[in-house]
Structures are given as structure tokens and as C-alpha cells.
Structure to design on (196 residues):
């Protein structure tokens, strides 16, 4: 499937935030995709409801485009199944999927967008690529920075944002949601020019 420069033609888009379900994980760096999905749900004026594909979903319009917002109810490492299930249910190609996730290789709060590419060791992306049978979907990467000292990446992403990070977290989540909005309404090049 080739890249769509996300449809301004009113085509439906699946916007999936990655994270782990349950209150114990809610403030973790790994759950920033869920935070952005919650912000987008506020913007479309919807509440998440359980879907048989194994995710909580909201349907609405973002920047005039019909969207399905999704938060998988499985753990991060298995999040591909529910997202692929939603894509099948709504009859959407992988190129109409936008995934919002945490990214270790980017400074805290920075946003980067791309289409396709590798998974950079991110188990949620690895699960999704395997479930879809392709890497050709959009990624909106929210920077969480590298772990300090000798802390493992796995431990770092399962820790809550620091007190200092939390001061600016709402601003960065809002900005990341703006980047998703720009991607959906004006395409990848426009979003990269504005947010990179």
C-alpha cells in the first residue's frame, strides 16, 4: 500500500493512541498516546466506548474529517490486534491509520511525524506492524527522552513523568494533538513543516 497524503477528501482515518490499560499505568511515559487520544476525544466531543475489536473508541470529526479514535484495551505489546481489528471493521487500509506513541530517541515534548519505517524497538509498533502485515502507517512520535544513567529503557517508559515534566505535559499533549489535527487536515508535509 502506498502512502496517502492523509485524505483531505473526507476519507475516514483511524487515530490510535498507544498505552497500557488501567489506573496503575495512567501516568507512565509509555501511556502518552492515551493522553493524546483523550485530548482528541475532547476535541471531537465524544466519550470512549468499548468496541468488540478490543479497544475503546470514539467516532467523530476532526478538522472536518471523519475519525475513529482508539485506545486498545490490551497491553502495549499486544496492541496491534485491536487496532488491526478496527481497521478491518471499518474497512480501512493501513495507510489510513495514525498511531500516537512515546519515542525514546526524541527529547521530552518534541513531536515528530512520519509514514512507515522501522519500529525502533517499540513493542507496540512491532505488534501493530505484525498484525497489519505492513509498516506503512503514520506515526506521530511524542518524545520522552532517554533514561538517566543505567536505567533500562523498559523501566524508564513504565515510570511516571517526573514532577518537572508534569509541569509542561498538558502543553505538550495539546501540541501533539494539534500535530495530529494538522496531519489529518493538511497532510504529512504540512504537519512536518509546522511541528518539526
Amino acid at each position: 500500500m502506498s502512502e496517502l497524503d492523509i485524505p483531505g477528501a473526507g476519507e475516514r482515518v483511524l487515530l490510535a493512541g498507544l498505552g497500557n490499560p488501567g489506573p496503575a499505568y495512567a501516568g507512565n511515559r509509555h501511556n502518552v498516546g492515551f493522553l493524546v487520544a483523550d485530548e482528541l476525544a475532547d476535541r471531537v466531543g465524544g466519550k470512549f466506548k468499548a468496541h468488540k475489536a478490543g479497544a475503546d473508541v470514539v467516532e467523530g470529526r476532526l478538522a472536518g474529517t471523519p475519525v475513529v479514535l482508539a485506545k486498545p484495551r490490551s497491553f502495549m505489546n499486544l496492541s496491534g490486534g485491536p487496532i488491526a481489528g478496527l481497521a478491518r471493521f471499518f474497512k480501512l487500509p493501513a495507510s489510513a491509520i495514525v498511531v500516537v506513541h512515546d519515542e525514546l530517541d526524541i527529547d521530552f515534548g518534541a513531536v515528530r511525524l512520519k509514514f512507515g519505517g522501522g519500529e525502533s524497538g517499540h513493542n507496540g509498533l512491532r505488534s501493530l506492524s505484525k498484525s497489519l502485515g505492513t509498516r506503512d502507517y503514520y506515526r506521530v512520535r511524542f518524545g520522552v527522552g532517554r533514561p538517566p544513567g543505567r536505567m533500562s529503557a523498559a523501566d524508564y517508559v513504565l515510570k511516571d513523568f517526573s514532577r518537572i515534566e508534569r509541569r509542561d505535559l498538558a502543553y505538550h499533549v495539546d501540541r501533539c494533538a494539534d500535530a495530529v489535527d494538522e496531519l489529518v487536515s493538511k497532510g504529512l508535509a504540512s504537519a512536518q513543516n509546522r511541528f518539526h
Remarks:
- The chain is about 35% helix and 20% strand.
